[in-house]
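QUALITY CONTROL LOG
STEP: pairwise intake check
CHECKER ROLE: data steward
CRITERIA: each record must contain a sequence immediately followed by its structure tokens, with no blank fields

ENTRY 1 OF 2
RESULT FIELD BELOW
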Amino acid sequence: MRLSGRVAIVTGGARHIGAAYARKLAEEGAAVVIADILDGETVADEIRAAGGRALALKIDVSDEADTGRMALETVKAFGRIDILVNNAAIFINIQRHPFYEISAEEWDRVSAVNIKGPFLCAKAVFPQMKEQKSGKIINISSSTAYWGTPNFLHYVASKAALIGMTRSLAREVGEFNICVNAIAPGLVEHEGQNAPKVLTELQLKERSIKRLQTPEDLLGVLTYLASSDSDFVTGQTMVIDGGSILY
């Protein structure tokens, strides 16, 4: 129970990796707010059934009014905000194209969720974290930002932007004892995601650890960055991909 008494927001927590994040934070003792454009009640019910505290909110992270409501409802329900996991992103439904076939509309749609969303969410929780003089903001980037994966420019650019955002934001909020870090997973296999075979084969070939990556591989690092163990760690991006990207 390393997060006992803490309050966490997980954007995109209604399914897949986000749901795994939400369950793990609750298991470690945090009250969890699942902020998702999808219905997060199923995950919230699971957490409550296990004895935890959870709240599901219907939130579009690209909408400033929604992210403001997210912060207000979290404080109203649980009294504080200790952890923000900026997980919500457009990924599964992205079509892979050469960059010259990506429309401006598609570029803007990915950027609105993957870049503007984390910015708006951080902006929304900052006043409460500043008042508390403590907080953990964890941005979910991707190893594609280091690979430079082709035919995926809108997604790769958005995840690279989060690394820069992590570094710059860490410098702005450090004086308030707020830590900002990022996790950059490799390709994660999970129910509901059918990764292109060519990407899966490439990842397996390049990884030092020759197996598929699962959401569980990310939970230890998530807990570390959310807990007091990382109180002097900020501005960092931790690549968790089985030893594919080495830097």
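ENTRY 2 OF 2
RESULT FIELD BELOW
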Amino acid sequence: MPDSLPALRRIRADVQSMHAYAVQDATGLLKLDAMENPHGLAPVLQAELGQRLGALALNRYPGARGDDLKRALAAYAQMPAGFSLMLGNGSDELISLVTMACDLPGASILAPVPGFVMYAISAQLQGLKFVGVPLTADFELDGPAMLAAIAAEKPAIVYLAYPNNPTANLWDDATIEQIVEAQGAQGGLVIIDEAYQPFAARSYIDRVARHGHVLLMRTLSKFGLAGVRLGYLMGPQALIGEIDKVRPPYNISVLNCECALFALEHADVFADQAADLRTQREHLVAGLAKLPGLRQWPSEANMVLVRVPDATKTFEGMKARGVLVKNVSKMHPLLANCLRLTVGTADDNARMLAALESSL
């Protein structure tokens, strides 16, 4: 094997010191670690979708069909007048594109922590400073700390996940508005990340048009299409028009596009799935409340955060019993001994509860 060490010196030192994003091996396990929709397509819809995908011109680059998808998403999301929409290969790509577009000298990105890890990762990869402002012990926004950080850092972007991952909660609306106004006053962007909107009691969509500096980001992953990789970003035309310039020209494949259009045409099917998961969440929460030594927090997503006496022992015990969840206890000090449980079907949740009880 030829020596690769000389070439490795060309790779940034901070990249070499990073850990790659880890996806847990779920082979042979009940997979409840990644907030996926457990419901698949009915056979008749599988056949219909297969015919449509088989008829696509895979020999051609993506074309105007992407515009059809943008119009369909705008209608589905009830996008405000005067707004534009851009597509991303999942929310991850959109986060990277916004970071790239805002990469001015000395720029920084600010977000509450613990939160979605890609905010910090995208900042690091783009060479921007990331400022994480700790939540309170109950995972609420620390309003004074957020306002102080905005005043001190003057960040280019403030991310607010609504609901948050991994804590699953919706933050106080009055505090959010204070943060939005403070960030606008110093000339920065706010991105409201609504990845878990199908499971939440509230959305920011009815407030976003009040501000000229707020963008709303969503994904079809939690809608039920995690494998399709389709995210979208809505905001004032002037802002979206500039950010869209850094998007690769063919970032959404014809297959992704057609799958998303097909799903939106059958939005009622996916709405029924989300309603079922909200019901199953209630049952799961009730079951968790009966387990001794366990604390849980309110959820507005398709996950529930719990604290157990020993997260590593419980995680490994559940895995040994065939159930894979997410051990988030090392992500941030506030998450000490916490596990994140994905809401599944009634049978999934019953298995998870049994494994959890046996592993505590």
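INTAKE CHECK: passed for both entries
DESCRIPTIVE NOTE, ENTRY 2: Residues 5-43+268-359 form a domain with the Aspartate Aminotransferase, domain 1 fold (CATH 3.90.1150.10).
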